[in-house]
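Q: My collaborator sent me two sequences in one message, no labels, and asked for predicted structures for both. Can we handle them in order? The first one she listed is below.
A: Yes, handling them in the order given. First sequence, followed by its structure tokens:
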Amino acid sequence: MTSFDHKAFLKTLSTEPGVYRMYDSEHQVIYVGKAKSLKKRVSSYFRVNIPDSKTRVLVSNIDSIEVTLTNTETEALLLENNLIKKYQPRYNILLRDDKSYPYILLSGHKHPRLAFHRGSRKYKGEYFGPFPSSAAVSESLRLMQKIFPVRQCEDAYYRARSRPCLQHQLKRCAAPCVGKVSDDDYTEQVDMVRQFLSGKSQQVIAKLVERMEKASVALDFELAAKVRDQIALLRQMQEQQSVAGNFAEMDVIGFVQQNGLSAVHMLMIRDHKILGTKTYFPKVPKDSQADEILTAFIGQYYLGSGGTSRIAKEVILPMALQEQEDLASALGEVAERKVQLKSQLRGERAQYLALANKNAANSIAVKQSAQDSINKRYALLKEALQLSDIKRMECFDISHTMGENTVASCVVFDGQGPNNKEYRRFNVEGITPGDDYAAMSFALNKRYGKLKDEEKVPDVIFIDGGKGQLGRAEAFFERWTLDKMPLLIGVAKGEGRKPGLETLLIDGGRRTVNIASDSPALHLIQHIRDESHRFAIAGHRNKRQKQRTQSLLEEIEGVGQKRRQALLKYLGGMQGVKAANIHQLKQVPGISPQTAEKIFNHLHDKA
């Protein structure tokens, strides 16, 4: 049991609402919780008989507890979710996919633009959404570009225009940048976009019909035909998105626990249309109950970063929750309107829930099938390499162009496959250009030179290359001081560099292993090798592009780092700088008329 003196701690604990954080002996946060009464809730962890094995394990690891008082339970709920996101405690249920949903931004400029947006709302304007995926936003923007000629170009591109672009010629932009449309007409189109994105598509159509009739009466048949086409596209878009339902705004949460996995399927309905669906697989401690999982999910999903803007008026639950009323009250307070959580269902609501549960079950089956395939690959690879276990593998690759901008990559695979968070790139420095052997030594030293945590030591390290690169890896590990020693394997390409003909080099190339081309074990090796290759090339291209972007400006006398950054930022990158005339260059902060002329002449001499 824990050495934590809970009796002394509980004597001084407040009965007010708040959040508690439990720490282990290494002062790592292992659990975050909220409570109406801190004393009552924290006391429940130290009862004589705790039936829940998960709670018993948690309590046995408590070394200290810290609390934060709040004025209300809603404040406690918000703080709890912020702390869970910050600390990712071991014994909390974690919503791993916490990326904010994408939105459509209608900017606050004189001539507003429509744009894709994800993340913090740092730009002035109106945000519409959320959308279930970036593809859904892109499709909506593409369709609206056909219907409403509102600009979607970047601000730097918009400022640099001296004549209409291709989008205006395609009748997808009214070209406000060069005065091809009056401010009043452009504002009218923006207002219709705003109404349409707010779910008032019928009002938009009625307004367009009225405008078409006025144009017809005025014998302006060209305008009438243009508005008619807008109406047709709008109605077509409505037909594609419409669902046979009576609910304007609702979220339906499906939930299934099976084979050690928990899946939460979210079905979103806005303006009588299915906006999209998404399945989440929360990280769930062993023996967690369905009520606990769903309560944690709802809190983290709706109250996480940017989540409050997507709280639906009605949320359908797969079961009644102990904290259902408190959650509804907290969500309503945050959303500043009434939010209903419903679990007793009939009619359409029950049908939607059945559909969401069905999708959750299907997602688990798909994930389980994928995991079974990964497990089979690992099992066959262990057999081929004669290893008792493989929990972690890493692979290195080198990328450069004629020795320039050398980048080394290290990708990591664990029992679930690629672990993207552990991927690393290294800018190789201090070597002879083009010396891949030295680059490999540099990367290995960067990766493992100061490593002390044996859990981070891989079971297998793959080197994308032949005996030379493998020899450098073995030379590095001759100085290895940790007890755990990884197996070093060189992946040599076969004849014609064809996939399936790879040879595995072990013991400095003195021993070779050939795996059948159709073996899942070889497919796993190819996967990690290709990942390292892709990751290295992407890093090298980024570095090369950055160097090319800056090199032309660096050659200009009197243009230092701050001026280069101002030019690139204000004009939208190197393409914008090259396309700018002298007058536009002079508008950049810090650029004098003389410097602008010098920059223009230099860039056009280089062209």
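Q: And the one she listed second?
A: Here it is, processed independently of the first:
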Amino acid sequence: MKIPSFIVKTSGIVCLLLGGMNLAAAESPSLVISESDITALRQASGGLLEQSMQDNKRLADAALTEGIVVPWPKDAGGGYTHEQHKRNYKAMYAAALQFQLSGESRYSKYVTDMLNAYAKMYPTLGLHPEKKEQTPGKLFWQSLNEAVWLVYTIQAYDMVADALTDEQKSHIQNNLLFPVADYLSKGQPQTFDKIHNHGTWAVAAVGMVGYATGREDYVAQALKGLDLSGESGFYKQLDKLFSPDGYYTEGPYYQRYALMPFVWFAKAIQTNDPDKAIFAYRDGILLKAIYTVIELSYNGLFLPINDAIKDKGIKTEELVQALAIAYDITSDKSLSDIARQQERVSLSAGGVALSKIIASNSVAPYPYESKIYRDGASGKQGALALMRSGNNETGTLVVSKNTSQGMGHGHYDRLSWQLYDNGKEVVTDYGAARYLNVEAKYGGHYLQENDTWAKQSVAHNTLVVDQKSQFNADLKEANKKPAEQVDFVSGELADISIGRINTAYEGVNFSRVQALIKPESVEPFVIDVVSIQSDAAHQYDLPLHFNGQIIDHNLSDYQSFNTWKPMGEDNGYQHMLLRGQGNSASSKNRLTWLLVDRFYSYTYGHYSDSDDSAKTLFFQLGANDPNHNLRRDQGAIRRLTASNVVMYSVIEPHGEYNGTAEYVTNAYSRLKSLDYKVTQSGAELTVNMGETGTFTLVLAGGDKSSGPTEAKVVKAKN
């Protein structure tokens, strides 16, 4: 990622500190949308901007037609009152922006009437009847939603403030804005001072109220925490929640959610306090975060890491807003490629500029690259490694997850991985067990299967020892023990990642080497080597969750079961129905499946100190699922008992299936042989791909307890 030199732009009228509790409120608008944004929008037309402006006007006009509807809080997430209050803050924002663009007083009157309705109701509210125990709200079941409401609402107030009388301002501030801000800060210090996305939304809301109303105390508390020590607040969140590469430890799904308060509050800071140079803080960490969340996507969707809803992608509103702010600062034309795919732009100066680039057909392609994203505030808690070949819509992407836990939204999946190819998720990750805002599914909350299945190790493509999840699924322990990104190499022939962890299971060390091999003129393929060391024998399970229809396999003594039974009683196994199993040879077992129009072959073997027979077990989800909450996903588990073992494999895309034209090409694997051998310096895995060539993954360094620390790929001469 190339971040151009920072250009700190000023817009609007800068607030002057007057000391004490007050500062001079700037002329509105003076938060995220400033005078320069409005000027740019009024002068622009055509392209995506025109469509986005029409969309905003339609939303504002529909709100005016509906009128003021402020129901008494009753429902949790997904329920009527919850959704109506969400619609209200978005409607207020749209109408206030429409007032700025058109000058029509009917829009400012709607916002004023809505604010007055809330100002009448809010002082009378107790805690929400469906309150969350730890973070209850008043308008909403949790204070997080209340903070989101205030982030939007304060901007709506800011955009109509100049149309209000002093009496109206005083009434709205004293009966609504200040009480909500006080409740989110002093009323819930455990959330406001928390280094977490809930805290980010709260400090952004309170800080923006401060700037819009001249409350210096709110601004100071938002920036440095309630006690003003700097041990919490916005700066500390910037220090702690992102790695030096801009990776957010909870993963891209929550990174895009947290982006909104981060970039919106930062924009408000820049507008009102340009000398703080907030977008240059910590080597431009906010801009890095925007670029990183873009790059943690494939074919428009975010990588489903940790508690992720799998249909969220780059078209999300948070990234639309962040993209315009990033462009306004960097003038990086490759961001226009993302805006083109979003099919809309932010109504701001940055959005105007992006729309003009797209309309003039001068879009620069976004440069997706193979790279690692370090985890942890200091970058020393593992990393997420991305290995790419081809473009981001149809090319190949290998994701090696050698990170930390990811806090409460994290999964027990150290050294897991995913494979994307041909525009599809091939080797899959379940993401979160949740139907967001579907009230019929546990009120839209995370389902109990999120804990009993989605977070468990066997739900991921990683090692499971003795049918137990990593760290015994103990969050406190897992948070202390990240994986280690041992090495990462990106090259023309191959990208290679080495991950390692010695703390997931007591007495068991394991490492994983993955390589994306990029031959000329044929599809890339993946080499995967898992090395496990222990002084005692254990049952090792290595799941592969895959997407597609099985074509065939070569397992011996295969049994298909007419009665499917759960594979265990806990740790996720209670949800897995055993469909069949077969004996696995020490080398060249093969499973082939078809996904849409491309075949995939998984060829695998093992090198072990034990003669115990190995098996491959085929499963489908659905056991112990009375409410049909789980998808009917499938997978295969490689199982053997040993103390020390190396489990290696190759996954290769090949051929084409065309049901319309009724032809099939190259339906069989190209792989001719797969040989693993121990050498004086380490080990070698040689993959003979026939006419494609012979490739050897050379492993070296380390010792019995640490696994390989160096790797390279050598292609034999034809």
